[in-house]
Write a structure and sequence with these properties.
Low-confidence stretches: none
Distance between the termini: 33 Å
Largest sheet: 5 strands, parallel
Strand order of the largest sheet: 2-1-3-4-5
Radius of gyration: 16 Å
Strand content: 5-15%
Structural class: alpha/beta
Number of strands: 5
Oligomer: single chain
Length: about 180
């Protein structure tokens, strides 16, 4: 609870989430999509948050374009086999991303090689990229803007990521569908 309280009172981090929501809204309005990637628990978070965009979050509305990389198990295993596990996200991102998209890279350490490789590809394509990571930001912090959870413990970081992700989903949903929210 203490970690979440620190996060709740961190205006700079909350402003970063608001800027990310604005980036997502701009992308979606231009026909782009929000792309997520992560490993393990962060993979589950990537799928969870993408689903909130595509299905619904707080109210019924039209779907928003979003995908989580790595959910096609055939592609993931083929890429892992043919190119190595470090390329599973970057290769898929290269296939589906366009400059008007937003890429949200999730890594509690900020050092996951396959997530970092995807961040590099996103930069090459010109995709706006934001990392969700832990307190230090790891290597990711030098590659993209990062929203850092105020902890070095994986479980606390993941709890903060899903809380920040839900804030993001709410801001995007309300911003994209202001009239539906009123109903």
């Amino acid at each position: 609870m203490a970690t979440k309280q620190v996060l709740r009172e961190d205006r700079a981090t909350l402003e970063q989430v608001a800027r990310l929501a604005d980036m997502c809204l701009a992308s979606l309005r231009k026909g782009g999509k929000v792309i997520f990637a992560g490993n393990g628990g962060s993979f589950a978070d990537a799928q969870h948050l993408s689903a909130e965009f595509v299905s619904r979050f707080m109210f019924d509305r039209a779907p928003l374009a979003s995908i989580a990389l790595g959910t096609n198990s055939s592609a993931m295993s083929a890429i892992g086999n043919d190119y190595g596990y470090e390329q599973v996200f970057s290769r898929e991102l290269a296939a589906v991303a366009k400059p008007e998209d937003v890429f949200i890279a999730i890594s509690t350490s900020g050092n996951s090689p396959n997530v970092l490789a995807a961040v590099e590809v996103a930069r090459e394509i010109g995709v706006a990229t934001v990392g969700l990571t832990g307190q230090s930001g790891g290597k990711m912090k030098s590659l993209c803007d990062c929203i850092c959870a105020p902890s070095n413990e994986t479980a606390r970081i993941q709890e903060c990521h899903i809380m920040l992700g839900h804030i993001l989903c709410g801001l995007v949903e309300e911003g994209y569908f202001p009239e539906e929210r009123k109903q």
